[in-house]
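Morning F.,

Quick status update on the modeling queue. The single chain you submitted on Monday has been processed. Sequence for confirmation:
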Amino acid sequence: MMRKSIVFTQAYRAELIEEPVPEPGEGQALVRLAVSTISSGTERANLVGDCNVSIGGAPSDRAMFPRRGGYSSSGTVVRVGAGVTDFAPGDRVALSWTTHSQLVCVGTREMTRLPDEVSFEEGALWHIATFPLAALRKCRLEIGESAVVMGQGVLGMMAVKLLRAAGAVPVIAVDPAPEKRETALSIGADAALDPFAPDFAAQVRRLTGGGARVALEVTGNGQALDQVLDCMARFGRVALLGCTRHADFTIDYYRKVHGPGISLIGAHTMARPETESSPGMWTTADDRAAISRLVTGGRLEFASMIGETHRPDEAGAVYARLAESRSFPLVQFDWRDCP
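Structure tokens below.
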């Protein structure tokens, strides 16, 4: 039995290939994907051959291919492996750490049951939504505190929605692209600013009454971190959610961090407990369950963020755009009609 998968076969090249379907092992399920989501920052880094794409091990000076993306998806269980009792064929599920593939084998720890009233499109965003949720938790946001989100890609948009649901006010979205600022306002931001405006930091301080209490830096850009530090209130907390893959920037830590008592918080999604949640530090599974409750309880919706949906056989053109564009929308692949 064969499946179709999107694979980065070399730098700047994505192809839809055929390969054997893996069999589910003990504790695993075989799932037929309905929808998979592009995580633009991570997948761009893999697509262009960035060597520094893993937080584990020593940095490499050579990009290795093939590479794959697509770790946030949804679908229907086809069959289960030995020992699986909590899922059965036909179950609709949201998935973590998958690939852009027609059929995937995944451990049941990476599966969350998808309620009937939730679409596959929204379910394919649940895993990636846990990234900004974990960052927000680590900042220990309190209701009524002001917040800034640097960058309005998929993680930044989700951060805006989560901060609003958590009671942050005002929620300020920041992005140099006018269309992304417009989108941020439409999904719940109280203000949307251009980081390259000459009075950017002054605008934030005015809107927040002296400086933001919490910031989520989502771009992974050293300049953006430097800029947001100018916007913080004393004792503010900054979560480093975006992957700053290269150290080619300088921060005046003495005046911007040390002096005002700013907390810089490592917020990579892998920097969390595996088995037991505690205040501010939840497991991925518990965060997925929280996203489920927030969505089904009417506190969150993600459908309004989806910009484009494509067939898997359009992957080459989609990723060619991703490699060149710095204003890439939230894009999903629909696998349901893939032969």
